[in-house]
Write a structure and sequence with these properties.
The protein is an alpha/beta fold and 226 residues long. The protein contains 8 helices and 9 strands. A hairpin with a 2-residue loop joins β8 and β9. The longest helix has 19 residues. It binds S-adenosylmethionine (SAM). The site of S-adenosylmethionine has 20 residues, from β5.
Protein backbone atom coordinates (compact mmCIF):
# COMPACT_ATOMS: atom_id res chain seq x y z
CA UNK A 1 0.00 0.00 0.00
CA UNK A 2 1.20 3.51 -0.76
CA UNK A 3 0.62 6.28 1.77
CA UNK A 4 1.02 9.83 0.49
CA UNK A 5 1.31 12.65 2.99
CA UNK A 6 0.71 16.25 1.94
CA UNK A 7 2.23 18.65 4.45
CA UNK A 8 4.08 21.93 4.88
CA UNK A 9 6.41 20.13 7.33
CA UNK A 10 7.86 17.16 5.41
CA UNK A 11 10.73 16.82 7.90
CA UNK A 12 8.18 15.97 10.58
CA UNK A 13 8.01 12.46 9.11
CA UNK A 14 11.74 11.78 9.38
CA UNK A 15 11.04 10.22 12.77
CA UNK A 16 7.69 8.46 13.22
CA UNK A 17 8.19 5.64 10.74
CA UNK A 18 11.80 4.80 11.53
CA UNK A 19 10.89 2.30 14.23
CA UNK A 20 8.95 -0.86 14.81
CA UNK A 21 6.27 -2.45 12.73
CA UNK A 22 5.77 0.31 10.16
CA UNK A 23 9.51 0.66 9.58
CA UNK A 24 9.76 -3.07 8.92
CA UNK A 25 6.75 -2.94 6.61
CA UNK A 26 8.43 -0.14 4.67
CA UNK A 27 11.71 -2.07 4.50
CA UNK A 28 9.97 -5.16 3.17
CA UNK A 29 8.07 -3.09 0.58
CA UNK A 30 4.59 -3.87 2.00
CA UNK A 31 4.08 -0.17 2.53
CA UNK A 32 5.61 2.85 0.89
CA UNK A 33 5.38 6.26 2.48
CA UNK A 34 5.75 9.24 0.15
CA UNK A 35 5.93 12.65 1.79
CA UNK A 36 5.02 15.63 -0.42
CA UNK A 37 5.89 19.23 0.42
CA UNK A 38 2.76 21.27 -0.26
CA UNK A 39 4.86 24.34 -1.03
CA UNK A 40 5.99 22.62 -4.22
CA UNK A 41 2.60 23.66 -5.61
CA UNK A 42 2.99 27.39 -4.84
CA UNK A 43 4.36 29.87 -7.34
CA UNK A 44 4.96 33.13 -5.45
CA UNK A 45 8.20 34.28 -3.86
CA UNK A 46 7.03 33.40 -0.34
CA UNK A 47 5.56 30.05 -1.36
CA UNK A 48 2.27 31.02 0.27
CA UNK A 49 -0.13 28.27 1.32
CA UNK A 50 -2.43 30.31 3.59
CA UNK A 51 -4.68 33.36 3.50
CA UNK A 52 -7.17 35.25 5.68
CA UNK A 53 -10.64 33.73 6.19
CA UNK A 54 -13.61 35.36 4.45
CA UNK A 55 -15.97 36.92 6.97
CA UNK A 56 -13.10 37.74 9.34
CA UNK A 57 -11.98 35.82 12.38
CA UNK A 58 -8.81 34.60 13.96
CA UNK A 59 -5.71 33.43 12.12
CA UNK A 60 -5.11 32.09 8.66
CA UNK A 61 -6.57 29.27 6.60
CA UNK A 62 -4.87 26.93 4.18
CA UNK A 63 -5.78 27.83 0.62
CA UNK A 64 -7.61 25.36 -1.60
CA UNK A 65 -5.49 25.99 -4.72
CA UNK A 66 -2.16 24.39 -3.76
CA UNK A 67 -3.92 21.41 -2.14
CA UNK A 68 -6.10 20.72 -5.21
CA UNK A 69 -3.10 21.07 -7.52
CA UNK A 70 -0.99 18.78 -5.36
CA UNK A 71 -3.59 16.00 -5.22
CA UNK A 72 -4.31 16.30 -8.95
CA UNK A 73 -0.63 16.08 -9.74
CA UNK A 74 0.06 13.15 -7.38
CA UNK A 75 -3.05 11.40 -8.76
CA UNK A 76 -3.87 12.54 -12.30
CA UNK A 77 -6.62 9.94 -12.14
CA UNK A 78 -8.83 9.07 -9.19
CA UNK A 79 -10.45 5.70 -8.59
CA UNK A 80 -12.10 3.86 -5.72
CA UNK A 81 -8.87 2.25 -4.49
CA UNK A 82 -7.34 5.72 -3.96
CA UNK A 83 -8.64 7.52 -0.90
CA UNK A 84 -7.84 11.16 -0.14
CA UNK A 85 -8.38 12.01 3.51
CA UNK A 86 -8.43 15.40 5.13
CA UNK A 87 -7.25 15.30 8.75
CA UNK A 88 -9.55 17.61 10.68
CA UNK A 89 -10.95 18.09 14.17
CA UNK A 90 -14.33 18.41 12.44
CA UNK A 91 -14.12 14.98 10.81
CA UNK A 92 -15.63 11.59 11.61
CA UNK A 93 -13.93 10.09 14.61
CA UNK A 94 -11.28 7.52 13.58
CA UNK A 95 -11.97 3.97 14.73
CA UNK A 96 -10.53 0.50 14.27
CA UNK A 97 -13.34 -0.24 11.80
CA UNK A 98 -12.34 2.77 9.73
CA UNK A 99 -8.72 1.63 9.85
CA UNK A 100 -9.81 -1.79 8.60
CA UNK A 101 -11.85 -0.27 5.75
CA UNK A 102 -8.89 1.88 4.72
CA UNK A 103 -6.57 -1.12 4.79
CA UNK A 104 -8.47 -2.36 1.71
CA UNK A 105 -7.32 0.65 -0.36
CA UNK A 106 -4.26 0.60 -2.58
CA UNK A 107 -3.27 4.21 -1.97
CA UNK A 108 -4.18 6.69 0.73
CA UNK A 109 -3.38 10.38 0.58
CA UNK A 110 -3.45 12.25 3.88
CA UNK A 111 -3.89 16.02 3.77
CA UNK A 112 -2.42 17.71 6.85
CA UNK A 113 -3.98 21.02 7.86
CA UNK A 114 -2.24 23.76 9.84
CA UNK A 115 -3.14 27.25 11.11
CA UNK A 116 -6.91 27.61 11.70
CA UNK A 117 -7.66 24.80 9.28
CA UNK A 118 -8.33 24.32 5.58
CA UNK A 119 -10.62 26.03 3.03
CA UNK A 120 -13.86 24.01 3.21
CA UNK A 121 -13.80 23.28 -0.53
CA UNK A 122 -11.09 20.70 0.16
CA UNK A 123 -13.47 18.73 2.42
CA UNK A 124 -16.42 19.22 0.08
CA UNK A 125 -14.91 18.64 -3.34
CA UNK A 126 -11.50 16.97 -3.03
CA UNK A 127 -11.29 14.66 -0.03
CA UNK A 128 -13.11 11.31 0.06
CA UNK A 129 -13.35 11.59 3.82
CA UNK A 130 -12.63 13.96 6.68
CA UNK A 131 -11.18 12.22 9.72
CA UNK A 132 -10.54 13.31 13.29
CA UNK A 133 -8.34 11.21 15.55
CA UNK A 134 -10.20 12.34 18.67
CA UNK A 135 -12.12 15.07 20.41
CA UNK A 136 -9.29 17.52 20.91
CA UNK A 137 -7.59 20.11 18.74
CA UNK A 138 -4.05 19.49 17.52
CA UNK A 139 -1.93 22.23 16.02
CA UNK A 140 -1.52 20.30 12.78
CA UNK A 141 -2.62 17.21 10.90
CA UNK A 142 0.84 15.61 10.84
CA UNK A 143 0.50 13.71 14.12
CA UNK A 144 -2.97 12.61 13.07
CA UNK A 145 -1.63 11.36 9.72
CA UNK A 146 1.05 9.35 11.52
CA UNK A 147 -1.64 7.81 13.76
CA UNK A 148 -3.80 6.81 10.79
CA UNK A 149 -0.84 5.32 8.90
CA UNK A 150 0.28 3.30 11.91
CA UNK A 151 -3.21 1.93 12.60
CA UNK A 152 -3.84 1.02 8.94
CA UNK A 153 -0.37 -0.37 8.13
CA UNK A 154 -0.40 -2.89 10.98
CA UNK A 155 -3.60 -4.41 9.57
CA UNK A 156 -1.99 -5.24 6.23
CA UNK A 157 -1.17 -8.88 5.55
CA UNK A 158 2.19 -9.88 6.94
CA UNK A 159 2.95 -6.62 8.76
CA UNK A 160 2.26 -7.87 12.28
CA UNK A 161 3.94 -11.26 12.63
CA UNK A 162 1.14 -13.16 14.35
CA UNK A 163 -2.32 -12.49 12.89
CA UNK A 164 -3.90 -13.88 16.09
CA UNK A 165 -2.53 -10.92 17.98
CA UNK A 166 -4.56 -8.60 15.74
CA UNK A 167 -7.77 -10.62 15.94
CA UNK A 168 -7.69 -10.56 19.75
CA UNK A 169 -6.91 -6.88 20.08
CA UNK A 170 -9.04 -4.11 21.53
CA UNK A 171 -12.06 -3.09 19.40
CA UNK A 172 -11.79 -6.11 17.11
CA UNK A 173 -14.54 -8.05 18.86
CA UNK A 174 -16.55 -5.22 20.34
CA UNK A 175 -14.57 -5.11 23.58
CA UNK A 176 -11.17 -4.04 24.82
CA UNK A 177 -8.32 -6.55 24.90
CA UNK A 178 -8.01 -8.70 28.05
CA UNK A 179 -5.44 -7.61 30.64
CA UNK A 180 -2.12 -9.47 30.52
CA UNK A 181 0.88 -10.17 32.72
CA UNK A 182 4.42 -11.39 32.15
CA UNK A 183 7.23 -12.65 34.40
CA UNK A 184 7.91 -12.51 37.29
CA UNK A 185 4.78 -14.23 38.60
CA UNK A 186 5.02 -12.11 41.75
CA UNK A 187 6.22 -8.53 41.50
CA UNK A 188 6.43 -6.35 44.63
CA UNK A 189 3.96 -8.68 46.27
CA UNK A 190 1.41 -8.47 43.42
CA UNK A 191 0.76 -11.95 42.07
CA UNK A 192 -0.43 -12.84 38.59
CA UNK A 193 -3.99 -14.33 38.57
CA UNK A 194 -3.55 -18.00 39.38
CA UNK A 195 -5.60 -19.28 36.49
CA UNK A 196 -2.97 -18.02 34.05
CA UNK A 197 -0.45 -20.40 35.61
CA UNK A 198 -2.85 -23.38 35.47
CA UNK A 199 -2.04 -24.51 31.93
CA UNK A 200 -5.79 -25.06 31.31
CA UNK A 201 -6.16 -23.28 27.99
CA UNK A 202 -9.93 -23.59 27.75
CA UNK A 203 -10.40 -22.09 31.23
CA UNK A 204 -7.88 -19.36 30.45
CA UNK A 205 -9.72 -18.48 27.22
CA UNK A 206 -13.03 -18.18 29.09
CA UNK A 207 -11.45 -16.19 31.90
CA UNK A 208 -9.84 -13.79 29.42
CA UNK A 209 -13.14 -13.22 27.66
CA UNK A 210 -14.78 -12.41 31.02
CA UNK A 211 -12.01 -10.07 32.14
CA UNK A 212 -12.06 -8.32 28.76
CA UNK A 213 -15.78 -7.70 29.24
CA UNK A 214 -15.29 -6.48 32.82
CA UNK A 215 -12.54 -4.10 31.79
CA UNK A 216 -14.64 -2.82 28.89
CA UNK A 217 -17.55 -2.21 31.23
CA UNK A 218 -15.27 -0.29 33.58
CA UNK A 219 -13.24 1.73 31.07
CA UNK A 220 -15.39 1.97 27.95
CA UNK A 221 -19.04 1.08 28.61
CA UNK A 222 -19.95 2.94 25.41
CA UNK A 223 -18.43 0.05 23.41
CA UNK A 224 -20.90 -2.41 24.92
CA UNK A 225 -23.89 -0.17 24.23
CA UNK A 226 -23.08 0.38 20.56
N1 LIG B 1 -10.05 25.59 13.72
C1 LIG B 1 -10.05 24.15 13.65
C2 LIG B 1 -11.20 23.62 14.48
O1 LIG B 1 -11.48 24.15 15.55
O2 LIG B 1 -11.82 22.61 14.08
C3 LIG B 1 -8.75 23.56 14.21
C4 LIG B 1 -7.57 23.75 13.30
S1 LIG B 1 -6.13 22.94 13.92
C5 LIG B 1 -5.40 24.18 14.88
C6 LIG B 1 -5.07 22.80 12.54
C7 LIG B 1 -5.07 21.46 11.83
O3 LIG B 1 -4.73 20.44 12.75
C8 LIG B 1 -6.38 21.04 11.23
O4 LIG B 1 -6.62 21.63 9.97
C9 LIG B 1 -6.21 19.54 11.13
O5 LIG B 1 -5.52 19.16 9.95
C10 LIG B 1 -5.34 19.22 12.33
N2 LIG B 1 -6.11 18.68 13.46
C11 LIG B 1 -6.42 19.33 14.61
N3 LIG B 1 -7.11 18.53 15.43
C12 LIG B 1 -7.25 17.35 14.81
C13 LIG B 1 -7.87 16.12 15.16
N4 LIG B 1 -8.50 15.95 16.31
N5 LIG B 1 -7.81 15.11 14.27
C14 LIG B 1 -7.19 15.25 13.08
N6 LIG B 1 -6.58 16.39 12.69
C15 LIG B 1 -6.61 17.43 13.55
Amino acid sequence: MIFHILTIFPEFFDGPFRHGVVARAAESGTVEIRVHDLRKWTYDLHRTVDDRPFGGGEGMLMKAGPIFEAVESIWPERNSSRKAILLSAQGRKFTQNMARDLSGSREILLICGRYEGVDERVAEHLADDEISIGDYVLSGGELAAAVVIDAVARLLDGVVGNTDSIVNESFERGTLDYPQWTRPAVFRGWAVPEILLSGNHEQIRKWRRETALKKTLRMRPDLLNS
